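COMPLEX REQUEST
Ligand: guanosine-5'-diphosphate
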Amino acid sequence: MFDANGAHAPSVCVVVPCYNEANRLDSAAFQRFFPLHPEIGFLFVDDGSQDATVSVLQKLCAGHEDRAVILRCEKNGGKAEAVRRGIVHALQSFNPGSVGFWDADLATPLEALDDFTEVLNQKPHVEMVFGARVQLLGRQVHRKAARHYLGRVFATVASHVLTLAIYDTQCGAKLFRVTAATPQVFAQAFLSKWVFDVEIIARYLRFYKYDSKYVEGIIFEAPLRKWTDIEGSKLKVLDFFEAMRDMLRIYFKYF
Ligand SMILES: Nc1nc2c(ncn2[C@@H]2O[C@H](COP(=O)(O)OP(=O)(O)O)[C@@H](O)[C@H]2O)c(=O)[nH]1
Ligand SMILES: [Mg+2]
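STATUS: Structure written out below.
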């Protein structure tokens, strides 16, 4: 088990939301990563999966209990709530120096965690490191055209709503330094289902009295070396419209 007193607990705790991931979860990739990174722990949140996700996770964590644990939610509550619960659990139980979340399909390879933790170590003022999916020559960032363009429309609207020059709010790879803001930001359920990433930033803005310049300074977008559109996404085209509606709700609630 992670050490409940925090004494030997990994200093980075990454929440991996899992809903019916039995067929997609790359257990081997996680197991290869564990011994190389004793400072990074994983909290897999099973969100009431109806498939074999729990037994796949149990096998994956067996023998690695010091850095891989499972949190089970009886009922499916959606990614936002699973991530939130995972982070609250990590903050209360493991006393980590940073927390984050990572999509279970490893669209962002785990190796990017090295880059993210390096940023937090090198830049003490940075509180958030977000993966940014930018297709640059020499990088392997491949998104399907439709997802890319819908994503760009969404991200542009998001940056206007947030009044921040942010490029990619929706990448499922994010790390947060634990500060006074963190427990407050994750304390209450999010109102949005898919765009809770935007809502997290809105809550940081609220915490820092809507000082956009300051919040821009504590976010670091890390361009990913590799990002793959993994088959089996649970996001549908209709969700784009739901996401836009959620963004309006965020706008009226926070701004
Ligand atoms: N907890 C939870 N996680 C979910 C749910 N739906 C998707 N996820 C997780 O969210 C992450 C991204 O899901 P994915 O379907 O790949 O979405 P996409 O990459 O944005 O198209 C994965 O870790 C999924 O397991 C859900 O209902 N509950
Ligand atoms: Mg995915």
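REMARKS: The mean pLDDT is 94. Residues 145-162 form the longest helix (18 residues).
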